[in-house]
Prior knowledge:
This is FAD-dependent oxidoreductase. InterPro entries: FAD/NAD-bd_sf. Pfam families: NAD_binding_8 (PF13450). The protein has helices at residues 11-22, 60-64, 103-109, 114-126, 128-135, 146-156, 160-163, 170-180, 192-205, 216-228, 257-264, 270-278, 315-326, 371-381, 397-403, 456-471, and strands at 3-7, 26-30, 42-43, 52-53, 80-81, 85-90, 96-99, 210-211, 232-234, 250-253, 284-293, 306-311, 336-339, 353-362, 389-395, 440-442. The protein folds into two domains: 3-41 and 212-279 and 418-471, FAD/NAD(P)-binding domain (3-Layer(bba) Sandwich); 80-210 and 282-403, Polyamine Oxidase, Chain A, domain 2. A hairpin with a 5-residue loop joins β6 and β7 (96-99). 59% of the residues are buried. By secondary structure, it is an alpha/beta fold.
Amino acid sequence: MSTAIVVGSGPNGLSAAVHLAAHGVRVRVLExxxxxxxGCRSSEPTLPGVxxxxxxxxxxxxxxxxxxxxxxxEEHGLRWLWPEVQLSHPLDGGREAVLWQDxxxxxxxxxxxxxxxDALVGRAARDFGTIAGEFLGxxxxxxxxxxxxxxxxxxxxxxxxxxARRWRGQEARxxxxxIAAHAFAPLHTPLTxxxxxxxxxxAHAVGWPxxxxxxxxxxxxxxxxxxxxxxxxETAAPVTSARxxxxxxxxxxxxxxxxxxxxxxxxLPASTAAAYARYRHGxxxxxxxxxxxxxxxxxxxQSRRAGTVHLGGTLEExxxxxxDVARGRMPARPFVLVGQQYLADPxxxxxxxxxxxxxxxxxxxxxxxxxxxxxxxxxxxxxxxxARIRATAVRGPAALEAHNANYVGGDIGxxxxxGLQLLARPRLAVNPYATGVPGVYLCxxxxxPGPGSHxxxxxRAAQAALGWxxxx
Length: 472
């Protein structure tokens, strides 16, 4: 029987392990931390019994993942729950733009900009089932649906600020800008539309669900599936030398490129080593978890029912803040994402105390304290929020990296998602998962299709590894 070692137990490492085990490979997963999950973990950071997601929180691409959806993970406890409102984007004065899973309801709420939203986002949502498999894979491949992919690509290459000109009202422009800001990149740069378009279309096609009980249940379900297939996981088992991996037929690394290069050291071909050295990490997140009494007193009505709330004001404000962050400057009013997962999953709350998940975009490696700037953005759109806070837990960029070594400098995407690197990560290659070391593959979010709890990077890397094993 062939053997494999997978280093790292994030959703990609576990997905790679499951796919290998399903094809008869004896798999051993080594995790440096005391618990599995990587970006898919949950805990009680504020008060006992109040459950918060440690990083990833809403999972449209996991719910749409061609790999995860075929594993029967519901048999191992994974259950998706949807908020009534997928996303709200409040503006000053109680105005807001609302993204419902129902496309017609969304376009109606956008008024005169509704038809233009339908023409762009609606078309992508209608094509979503066809094109999801195309963009959830490497750049260099033979497309199965070339016309649909070409339509998507023609829109996706534009800067988000250019795309936003399709709409005249502040509401639609701000709604799209906030979604595109998930790229952690200046919105005036090419390809930032792609992130906004994928996430907006996914909200209509599959919604933005949460995992019942917390994001940690995604990792737990994958681990249970791996156990069914005979695979094993060891925690508190850091790998510090490539010699520890010798003897395995296959090695898959759920690591950032820099960590992979350090581990493989002189074994890497010069071209791969150079590409990994050039790999860029992006801006950081600054995370604050709140335990609050009752609900956030949003001025905008639908924000009170939304799983996700984007705070940043108008398109122009968001674009300015993201440009500052990219230049290494901390904006006075950063872009902030707020998660109200408990609205879909009340099991996360305790005795009227609700968990609020939030993070602000800050410069890479930001050493300061963004708690006040983040809190002020919530208070701006929900006066009285501060009075409801009962406990907080803060995790800045350094703490995020300590919690998950792939988050270099607080970059929760495991690499900048701007420019060519959005499409060709960690390097431009026919097989971006191959390290050039025989039998060793990179399977982290630094490989296509990039960030998200979809497991597709692990699955694609495992496919590549099995192909090499068959040819050996």
